[in-house]
Specification:
The protein is of the alpha/beta class. It folds into two domains: 189 residues, 3-Layer(aba) Sandwich (Isopropylmalate Dehydrogenase), CATH 3.40.718.10; 151 residues, Isopropylmalate Dehydrogenase, CATH 3.40.718. The protein contains twelve helices and 14 strands. The strands form three sheets. Strands 2-1-3-12-11-4-5-10-8-9 form a ten-stranded mixed beta sheet, with helices on both faces. Strands 6-7 form a two-stranded antiparallel ribbon. Strands 13-14 form a two-stranded parallel sheet. The longest helix has 16 residues. The relative contact order is 0.16. Bound molecules: 3-isopropylmalic acid (IPM) and magnesium ion (MG). The site of magnesium ion has 2 residues, from helix 9.
Amino acid sequence: MTKKIAVLAGDGIGPEIVAEAVKVLNAFKQDGLDIELEYGLIGGAAYDETGSPLPDETLQMAKHADAILLGAVGGYKWESLDISVRPEKGLLGIRSQLNLFANLRPALLYPQLADASTLKPEVVAGLDLMIVRELTGGIYFGQPRGIRTLENGEKEGYNTLVYRESEINRIGRVAFDIARKRQSRVCSVDKANVLECTELWRETMTTLSKDYADVELSHMYVDNAAMQLVRAPKQFDVMVTTNMFGDILSDCASMLTGSIGMLPSASLDENGKGMYEPIHGSAPDIAGQNIANPLATILSAAMMLRYTLDQPAFADRIEKAVSKVLDQGLRTADIFSAGTTRVTTAEMGDAVVAAL
Ligand code: IPM
Ligand code: MG
């Protein structure tokens, strides 16, 4: 049966990088991949057209699709808009409306890029870790929230960090299940020494771990985790954490791999339906120049084939092709170093297609 993929390119470099991932997906059609792509607006591009960063038409398209491929949202142009209609709201809205609570952010170092990392090659060589970030709860969505004016006229901003046991359990299960397919180690990251909400997080993870006697659970405070990620990142197999801590730690982990332009992600609901996007942003400073790295988005398409479309062979082919183009010495600006060949966004996409 034909699988429907909603393609939401978004803003900034979004359209450029998504176009390359689409090239790769389309290349598989001749080998029997039965997909149909539909295009929708999200983020600033959607706001400009419709007044909303997540128009109902896009939401309906995403709901009815089997999977979603997303570029990135946001840009200087929309920074002064009210927070309720900013491009980021489109992304947060689709995550929440589709219940995409499990965000998988693998940080894998391609050996060819060991030099591109700002860390010493021996610290990052062989790195393969998976960050499992809770995506539809925590301080990103907690109520009450806002900016209020106090009696003395001073303004006060406030947000709420809140997690229910059921939310902690469901993201915990995702992490434990993934760990079973890897090195069977989960490190749960919290701030249980200060925040009650994450004290409950820690307790709930510990109780849940009784169902996973074959998986080793450890706990770490988030400040220490940030330090350990740059000190000795290979100690980690699977990290599971809250929405905001996961946002921060995954950016940190991305640099271990040389460039944030290399990291894909999957955001899954309870049934494995998912949205796939690079973890980087819309990079408005380099938008439209054909220099962005499309590999994170291309690798996100591979995750889509693996996790939602159940086509692991096609996913393998993409991952191998990415490795091959790196072997060929092809590099976009963000991963370029002496002795390699600098290519554009579109050239990188073409090279991956050729290497499939
Ligand atoms: C990410 C991004 C988003 C987030 C922004 C764009 C809303 O930083 O996907 O990591 O904070 O979740
Ligand atoms: Mg982020």
